[in-house]
Design a protein that fits this description.
With 498 residues, the protein is of the alpha/beta class. It contains 15 helices and 21 strands. The chain has helices at 40-56, 64-80, 82-93, 97-121, 157-170, 185-196, 211-220, 233-244, 268-280, 300-311, 332-347, 381-384, 400-408, 423-432, 465-470, and strands at residues 2-4, 6-8, 11-13, 20-25, 30-36, 125-127, 136-144, 147-151, 174-178, 204-206, 226-230, 249-253, 258-262, 290-296, 351-354, 371-374, 391-397, 415-419, 437-440, 459-460, 473-481. The longest helix is centred in the N-terminal third of the chain and has 25 residues, at 97-121. Bound molecules: nicotinamide-adenine-dinucleotide and manganese (II) ion. Nicotinamide-adenine-dinucleotide binds at residues 151-155, 178, 180-181, 211-212, 215-216, 219, 230-232, 235, 238-239, 253-256, 287, 386, 388, 414, 454, 459. Manganese (II) ion binds at residues 23-24, 26, 92, 182-183.
Length: 498
Amino acid sequence: MRQYQLYINGEWIDAKSGGTFKVLNPYTEEAIAEVAKGSREDAQIAIDAARKAFDSGIWSGLPPQRRCEILLDIAERLAAKQSELIELETKDAGMTTRMSSMADIPGGIGQFRYYAELARSVPFYEGLPPMEFPTSYNFVLREPIGVCGQIIPWNAPFLMAVSKLAPALAAGNTVVLKPASYTPITALELAKIIDESDMPKGVVSVVTGPGSTVGEEIAANPKVDKVSFTGSTEVGRRIMELASSTVKKVTLELGGKSPVIVLEDANWDVAIDGVLYGVYLHSGQICVAGTRLFLPGSIHDEFVEKLVAKASHMKLGDPMDWGTDMGPLVSAEQRDRVEGYIKSGLGQGARLACGGARPKELEKGYFVEPTIFIDVKNDMKIAQEEIFGPVLSVIKYSSVDEAIDMANDTIYGLAGAVWSEDMGRAMDVAKKIRSGTVWINEHHMIDTRHPFGGYKQSGIGREMGIYGFHEYTEIKHVYMDLVRKRESKLWYGMVCSG
Ligand code: NAD
Ligand code: MN
């Protein structure tokens, strides 16, 4: 079994308490690693190290070219370890090997490279309109914020770790990262690689442990300047509350209940698979999953029939197996939660078109079958709350305006999709969906260079691209006087008349 300690101030150390916890493979239900269980005290030590590293200028004071070189070197080391990372991610998170090898790991490495390059190419000076009176030169300096606390969820552990670390480091900040306890392995492997690089000590620490101690310390500690969190809306509210004590900057990437609106003229050839891809990728454990499907009455029955035919033939099994379409949920607790929602759907009068149970042929692993509910009303719990499992709620609509109203009738606003062959109509719907991303005839497409984040209670701020980089900078306005002569500075007369 793999063993991991805490990575603090450039050293691998045990938790102060000596405690550890086991990390499971959700397919075999067996422990694959034992990891140090950090506490508030460990988090404080890491934060102190990050504070010292930031204040010394050991990282932010380096020429951007040097920061770029060190980050690029880390990206190359990650690339060299790509196949090992793919295997670890699949065993830890239950993500299919198809997904970890096509999206999560190469996507994360690509993102690391992107931000490494930005560290050198992005302008840290931005000119402002010149002032004629008083004659002065004005510009903006983009400066790092300072110590950044970063807390991530379990669904795409490597990608999440990179989305936090890479832009923060590129901008010159120092970082304390807390991985999710279900899936800490690839973030700890990333720490190993950072440790082998020329990254100065204390710039990056990775502290594993409970959200209720390590996470809360990171969000509340006065030495932390910014906290960036990805996870549930419920915990996001708590983070904001804790961060408010010292008015920390916050970036929150929270939950979603993304609508998929199919118009009558959609191309079914693509839309059927597109809808299944939208909801069942990673067993539905994706924040932007298309979990509410709005269908016009005219095509409802036939469209559902085609969805069911395909969904019930998806292959569930070992995520390491290239033939597997859908792997297990991350944990027994998550499966309980999903099953609770299936009961609630039935209790509120929705009907199962397929799925709803554990697959009979699989004896182990936290599986739930691909599930489709019909006769769903938009105010049912299964249409309003984030399930984070392979459950699709199908809702009938009679006019596109009604579909849009229902699509927006949620506390969330992370993503949405519209399927139509008429770009004018599709664009009209896209404009009316209140969310940070809208796909037209697609789902899940997120690129390193494009902004990502939520409207409403799906979050604050943006990740990815230059947008994500800017979230890790403070804007300093510098005013440089070009007048210089006392007699021309008439405005001093407001105070110094004599
Ligand atoms: P979670 O909110 O339970 O936990 C996220 C992280 O916060 C974990 O590391 C956890 O240990 C920590 N945490 C828990 N309680 C805490 C507290 N009181 N103080 C500080 N930290 C605490 O979420 P999860 O179950 O790990 O992940 C699933 C959720 O993440 C879903 O809601 C999903 O939509 C969301 N998510 C959002 C995005 C996005 O970009 N918007 C991406 C992926 C996942
Ligand atoms: Mn795990």
